Amino acid sequence: MFSKVLIANRGEIAVRVARTCRDLDVSTVATYSDADEGARHTRVCDRAVRLSGTGSSDTYLNIPAVIEAAVSSGAQAVHPGYGFLSENAAFAEAVIAADLVWIGPPPEVLRVAGDKISARLCAESAGVPVVPGLLEPVGSPDLVLEFAAEHGYPVAVKAAAGGGGRGLKVAHVAGEVEEAFAGARREARAYFGDERVYVERYLASPKHLEVQIVAPGRGQEVLWLGVRDCSLQRRHQKLIEETPPVQTASHVDDMGRAGVALATALAYINVGTVEMLFDGEDFYFLEVNARLQVEHTITEEVFGIDLVAVQLRIAAGEDVGFVQSDLGSRGHAIECRINAEDPARGFAPTPGKLVRYAEPAGPGVRVDSGYLAGDDVPGAYDSLLAKVISFGADREQARRRMLRALGEMQIGGVSSTVPALRLLLQEPSFVDGSYTTTTVEQGGALDSLVQAPEAGEREEEEVLLVEGRAVALWNPAMSASATGAVTGRASAGVLAPMQGTILKLWAVDGDEVKTGDPLIVLEAMKMETTIVANRGGRVTLQVEAGESVGAGQLLAVVQ
């Protein structure tokens, strides 16, 4: 086993990896940006190294700086966590070239798995069913329109190098194709540095399931550790996950075998996930996540296996200590993601100071967190604060324990997803297991979170229509949906609803716009928010693309 590991990540996953390293008597080195100085992960690790940068997300993407931190600190290996550089083949190669051990799949596997087109081709060759789609990049909206004419709507335009819901746009009618194509390319370029996109049939209301893979390598068989249901999502980002799945139990073995077949075809090594979409009685390959998943925790709970320890052992050339016949799950586990977002306002990100933070405890409750009370939650990074995991002898016990845990969770200073999670756990479709990827955004499960302004405040607030539902706003600029429109008392100033970065300008000075026309795309916490005109008139912009803005800052004037 290694004596020292550098963790090339931040937040709860860096804390999570550091804890297993401590269990194995492995010293840890944290990396941090200016925005993360003194963050929880830097305190949990044995040493912390500052990465040169301004505190933006780019700091953690600086490959030479990360390699220098690993070499200068005397680390023997690098664990990438998830996100950032975890699936970057060039980073893996740089780690290996520096005579360090890469804790993850080989670079050549990362390249094939990370390219959604080549991964689809590999899935087909392994006999794993795929959603109908084109197996080459599309260079214009016309090709998307041609595909839709043959296969029907809705269609998904997806980043070839993407994953995790980034670079994915859906067109439900022909009139939405051009913006879906442009939006997917924009996100693909921004998140992955690769603007290639492809198109496939969009399954309107499937279940999102995934197979946990462990591939020890060295000619050993690929193993699978159950299937997780990750269908409760907003903006294609997961909120609640559970294992084992409820209504698809009869297909679990087939999905497990399909995951193993694909991993074998890829010559996969280390830990990873094969994601599937389940529609009717059929399942289809979605993508390979060639890294540890956020929701690995629930698999750990039901199988009693530390997947981070497994990663370390495989990378160190050690035996994982089990074979497929040894594996058997027990009980049921649920994970809830606690994000700094306001679910009553379209899950808008809410960076700020965490003035109050207290974690739940008790039987069957685990919390993985990257923050403590008093910490700043930066707008430059993902909005995930913590993960609450419950375990029970059966699903209902796990569900009740999660409700108890969320009731104990205390968060102040920023809004969080906790109120939405409590509602979703009591939603009839969750109780019976019939929920799908559309339950959160189209099922009305969160309608009770939408509250009208208090008496006397109506003149000071605006109302946003998100998916046809009225949402009271704290300022007239807020829009959590690209299809949002603002109604109510209109003022000339369009303000930033949150701290963020101007990603795109839809309008230019002098444009004539109508109420609801898109003006600006603001990125905060890895989410895009489209700011729309709150009145008709002529636009005067106050910001430029790439500029960082604060909450409440004037973005444009419409008069």
Describe the model:
The chain is an alpha+beta fold. The chain contains 15 helices and 33 strands. The strands form 9 sheets. It has an 8-stranded antiparallel sheet with strand order 13-12-9-10-11-14-21-19, sandwiched between helices. Strands 3-2-1-4-5 form a 5-stranded parallel sheet, sandwiched between helices. It has a 4-stranded antiparallel sheet with strand order 26-33-31-28, with no helix packed on it. Helix 4 runs antiparallel to helix 5, helix 7 (141-151) crosses helix 8 and helix 12 (395-408) packs antiparallel against helix 13 (418-426). The longest helix has 16 residues, at 177-192.
Low-confidence stretches: 451-490
Described by its quaternary structure, the protein is single chain
Q: Please, what is the average pLDDT?
A: 89
What is the helical fraction, as a range of percent?
25-40%
Task: Give the strand order of the largest sheet, numbering strands 1, 2, ... along the chain.
Answer: 13-12-9-10-11-14-21-19
* Number of discrete helical segments: 15
Radius of gyration, taken over Cα atoms and rounded to an integer in Å: 23 Å
Number of DSSP-assigned strands: 33
Strand content: 25-35%
